[in-house]
Structures are given as structure tokens and as C-alpha cells.
Amino acid sequence: MRVGNGNRLEGCYAHDNIDDGYDLFNKIEDGANGIVVIENSIARNNTSNGFKLGGEGQPVAHEIHNSVAVGNHLDGFADNISLRSHEGKYDDAISGHVDNSNYFIRDGRTENSVGNQLSVNDFQSLKLPMPLQRNADGSFQTGDFLTKQ
């Protein structure tokens, strides 16, 4: 399957799938996918990855905005090849526009590019409501999920 430039997924909810929530896998024989933008979307409780954003070593500049991955069996965000120098250490490269609002797990800490850290105590809740419902405008009713203290 080829994924072309200009495709957008907005306000989508991929949950409880037998594989990935969002699967933008690249096949080497097909070449890299076109850029896909995913906004205001959730990947929850999928048996593999929440957001699979490539594969077979082919870089693609997909854009993910205001989206979360929760409770997926493997990775929340992946390129289908996790390069690990040793067990529990991820060496995946992140490229594109990464600012101080982006947080990553580094050496057991959740931090941004300037070293600001987050902890569970920074938030009112780390659990999405079940079942997840929508507001009249189509946005998700997430309650206190990821709301800062």
C-alpha cells in the first residue's frame, strides 16, 4: 500500500486493533511513503504500535500534532525498526521540528531538549476515560487526562 502526500487524519481514534493503530509502513520495494499529517488523534490499546510511522530504514517526514498513544503493547510511536544498543536503551533518531514542547524518555527520565523533566505528579490524571466519548465539535472528552496540576 502506498501512502501519498497530502493525506490527513484528524480527530481519529484507533483502538483495540490486532496490530498497529495507525500503520504507515514503508515497503522497501515501493519506496518511501508520502508525508501524512495526523492531528488530534489517539492510539489506544493496540496489540502492536500505536503510530507506526515508517519502516525498512526509509525516512519519511510525517507530522504528528496533539496526538497521544496510550496502552499499546509495543511502542507508542515507532518506525518499525527500534535500534537498541542494549536492552531497554532506544537509539532511534528523531528529526524535523523538535521544540521544548516535545518530551522523550532518556535514561529513565521524561525530558525535553533543554532538560526540563516531567513526572506523574505533574498531572491530574494519566488515564483516559473509558469509554472515550466526543464533544459536539468532534473533539475527545478526555477529562483530566494529561491536565497539569
Tell me the β content: 25-35%
Radius of gyration: 16 Å
- What helical percentage do the residues reach? under 10%
What does the average pLDDT come to?
84
Annotation, overall tally of beta strands: 14
The order of strands across the largest sheet is 1-4-7
Number of helices: 0
Strand-and-helix sequence, N→C? Answer: EEEEEEEEEEEEEE
Distance between the termini: 43 Å
| Spans of at least 5 consecutive residues with low confidence | 82-86
Q: Structural class of the secondary structure composition?
A: mainly beta
Which outline best applies?
globular
Characterize the biggest β-sheet. 3 strands, parallel
Structure overview:
19% of the residues are buried. The chain contains no helices and 14 strands. It has 149 residues and is mainly beta. The strands form 5 sheets. It has a 3-stranded parallel beta sheet, with no helix packed on it. Strands 2-5-8 form a 3-stranded parallel beta sheet, with no helix packed on it. The protein has strands spanning 7-10, 13-15, 22-23, 36-39, 42-44, 51-52, 63-65, 68-70, 77-78, 104-106, 109-111, 117-118, 133-134, 140-141.
Structure keywords:
single chain; 149 residues; mainly beta; three-stranded parallel beta sheet; 14 strands; globular
Task: Furnish the topology, listing elements before pairings.
Elements: E1 7-10, E2 13-15, E3 22-23, E4 36-39, E5 42-44, E6 51-52, E7 63-65, E8 68-70, E9 77-78, E10 104-106, E11 109-111, E12 117-118, E13 133-134, E14 140-141
Parallel strand pairs: 1-4, 2-5, 3-6, 4-7, 5-8, 6-9
Antiparallel strand pairs: 10-11, 11-12, 13-14
